[in-house]
Amino acid sequence: MLFCCRSYRRHSRLFGRCYYIVIFSCLIGLSWSIFSNFYFNRNDNNLNEQKSPLIFCFVLSENNRHLTSSRAIVYSWGKRCDRFYFITRLQNTSIELMMLENFQVTSDIISNTINKNTFDVLSYLQDAELFSSYHWFLRASDDSFVIIPNLRRLIIQLDNKQEEYRPLAYVGDVEQMYEKYHIATTGSVMLFNRLAINRLTLIDDVEDNKYESDRQRCLTNMIYDHEFIRCMKKIQITINPMNDNLILSQNLSTYKMDKRLKDTCCSPNTVAFRASNETDMYKFEFLYHRLDALSKINK
């Protein structure tokens, strides 16, 4: 009887030790599984972001907004572009703005000239060897707010559909606002691929002089964004190959207050919209990139 008790104690001690070892091993395995999933998923996400095409952003800004909305763009979404410049006149108030060198003596950017200025900038970028590695170009004005992660997702989707092999421009709801609601805009966010810039700025060696004269007349006389889009369509640039509500040409409050527009805004994939003032830009930056726990942007 005594022998049986001692034997039982001996085996129970061994079993107790093995039990703790098994529990300890399970905890280590569980911890490693959680760590590896988090680490490798994060690396995969970072790798996907690194593989996204380079984006060249330029903002056309009025001279009297250097210290307000233009400065807010610098400290919010502008820093998230791969290359970022302002198109505005060099002044004492523009000291914090990274300006495209060839346009530092340009006249003040106003609503009637913003699309003509855009064409001049695109013509320069098409010839500039320094920016030859960029295939996507974003035009914005000094009241625009762009959600860069959503912009990158849009470009990746366009690339996956092989849209980069034809000239295209993504312009959002500009045409819809004008054709359905008679709302004309200037300076709305537009996205161009390099082939679209080539088609816009290069003069083809064609025998049809009337075609070229019509093209030049269209680009010279355009003022509003829908007129710019009309010119691009004339030279066979594809407009909005995907749904057209990802870039919003109006202020968010406009979509909220105008009952006609209540079903046209917004979506979790919205790329850009207009902001009322610089305070709104800082708010949007804080809400999206600081309070969103799922944001993949590096702080």
What does this structure look like?
By secondary structure, this protein is of the alpha/beta class. The chain has a single domain, classed as Spore Coat Polysaccharide Biosynthesis Protein SpsA, Chain A, CATH 3.90.550. The chain has ten helices and nine strands. It has helices at residues 2-51, 69-74, 114-127, 148-160, 174-181, 194-201, 209-221, 225-234, 252-257, 278-289, and strands spanning 55-60, 83-87, 136-141, 144-146, 168-170, 190-193, 238-239, 247-251, 272-274. It has a six-stranded mixed beta sheet with strand order 2-1-3-6-5-7. A three-stranded mixed beta sheet has the order 4-9-8. Helix 3 (114-127) crosses helix 6 (194-201). The longest helix has 50 residues, at 2-51. The radius of gyration is 27 Å and the shape is globular.
Please specify the SSE layout and strand pairing.
Elements: H1 2-51, E1 55-60, H2 69-74, E2 83-87, H3 114-127, E3 136-141, E4 144-146, H4 148-160, E5 168-170, H5 174-181, E6 190-193, H6 194-201, H7 209-221, H8 225-234, E7 238-239, E8 247-251, H9 252-257, E9 272-274, H10 278-289
Parallel strand pairs: 1-2, 1-3, 5-7, 8-9
Antiparallel strand pairs: 3-6, 4-9, 5-6
Helix pairs in contact: 3-6
